[in-house]
Specification:
The chain is α/β, with parallel strands linked by helices and 335 residues long. The protein folds into 2 domains: 214 residues, Spore Coat Polysaccharide Biosynthesis Protein SpsA, Chain A, CATH 3.90.550.10; 70 residues. It has 10 helices and 9 strands. Strands 1, 2, 3, 4, 5, 6, 7, 8 and 9 form a 9-stranded mixed sheet that branches. A hairpin with a 5-residue loop joins strand 2 and strand 3. The longest helix is centred in the C-terminal third of the chain and has 33 residues. The protein starts with 10 loop residues before the first strand and ends in a 15-residue tail after the last strand. Keywords: Cell membrane, Glycosyltransferase, Lipopolysaccharide biosynthesis, Membrane, Transferase, Transmembrane, Transmembrane helix.
Length: 335
């Protein structure tokens, strides 16, 4: 008698796409994914199938909700996920993960930058390395411009060097996650959490698979400088408590500098040298120390703010029904 467990099983994949400005690009992305819903065999010999595509509407400004409804009517495997308001890309991705049911979860962007066919390489890397998380490692520069690419690499390197811990340089929005791990992370992640940091808390082995980044469909990026800075700061705050240790270290450093300056002035006075008096040195020390104190308090306050949001029960996201099918969609007839 054949043992069913010995037979190679098909890997069922849930694709999660957070949607903010996808009215122009989503139809093209879905047409590429459609081929994978018929079943495929990876170069490594694994059998896979895209079982569902979850489009998470994050209340963008371009009418993407209408596009999502049209795609749901066209493709039976498309499942819309409606959020009550704009929560941001990471929260929308987690909402899609929580709503998924596949063996694996693939997350990709709405703008066509990621080639859906390359998820086969991600799956091969997961099976070969027995990895619960696989990130797409770009083999070419991201199509964002030199300055933004440089800022992205630089910020990740700063976090890796200063705060330590996970290799943040591997973080990418094109990722494959073991289904049960992704759904568990979506269940416990708190408000303001950085998705990849949360995955790092529980994921086993992490692997990389090469991918090629494409142009963003002629669409302007939805990330302003302010949002990118907020993105970076959230990664800092959720990477651990080493930021608080840096505050203590900064205080000790400034205290040591103050002692050195005091000893220098005392020895100079004892030796009979003329120590110039004036506002220059005093103002310099005052500005440095007061600025360091305010900077340190700001970091502590940010950590406290994150803890307060979690303690107050602020939700990371809230899934609702399609507004068009509820009270908000009822049109008042004109008289």
């Amino acid at each position: 008698m054949t043992n069913p467990s010995a037979q190679p099983a098909q890997h069922r994949i849930s694709v999660v796409i957070p949607v903010y400005q996808g009215s122009r690009t989503l139809p093209g992305v879905l047409s590429e994914i459609d081929v994978l819903t018929k079943g495929f065999t990876t170069p490594g010999g694994a059998d896979g199938l895209v079982a569902e595509v979850l489009l998470v509407f994050d209340h963008g400004p371009d009418g993407s909700d209408a596009t999502i409804r049209e795609l749901a009517e066209r493709y039976e495997y498309v499942r819309p996920v409606w959020l009550s308001r704009n929560f941001g890309q990471h929260a929308a991705t987690l909402a899609g993960m929580a709503s998924s049911g596949g063996d694996w979860i693939v997350t990709l962007d709405e703008d066509g930058q990621h080639d859906p066919a390359e998820m086969m390489g991600l799956l091969d890397a997961a099976v070969e390395n027995r990895a619960t998380v696989v990130y797409g490692a770009p083999s070419n520069p991201a199509p964002h411009g030199f300055l933004r690419n440089l800022a992205s690499k630089g910020s990740k390197k700063v976090i890796e060097m200063v705060l330590g811990g996970t290799d943040t340089s591997s973080y990418q929005s094109y990722r494959l996650v073991l289904g049960e791990v992704g759904r568990s992370v979506a269940a416990y992640a708190g408000a303001g959490v950085y998705l990849d940091v949360a995955l790092g808390w529980v994921a086993g082995d992490v692997a990389l698979a090469p991918v090629t980044l494409r142009e963003e469909g002629g669409r302007r990026s939805g990330y302003s400088f302010r949002r990118l800075l907020s993105h970076f700061w959230r990664m800092v705050l959720t990477s651990g408590t080493r930021g608080l240790r840096l505050v203590a270290g900064l205080g000790m450093f400034l205290a040591a500098v103050g002692v050195v300056i005091a000893v220098y002035l005392a020895v100079t006075r004892i030796l009979g040298a003329d120590v110039p008096s004036g506002w220059t040195s005093m103002m310099m020390v005052t500005l440095v120390t007061s600025g360091a104190v305010l900077f340190s308090l700001g970091i502590v306050a940010e950590y406290v703010g994150v803890a307060v949001n979690m303690a107050m029960g602020k939700p990371l996201y809230l899934i609702v029904g399609d507004p068009e099918n509820g009270p908000l969609g009822r049109k008042v007839p004109r008289r």
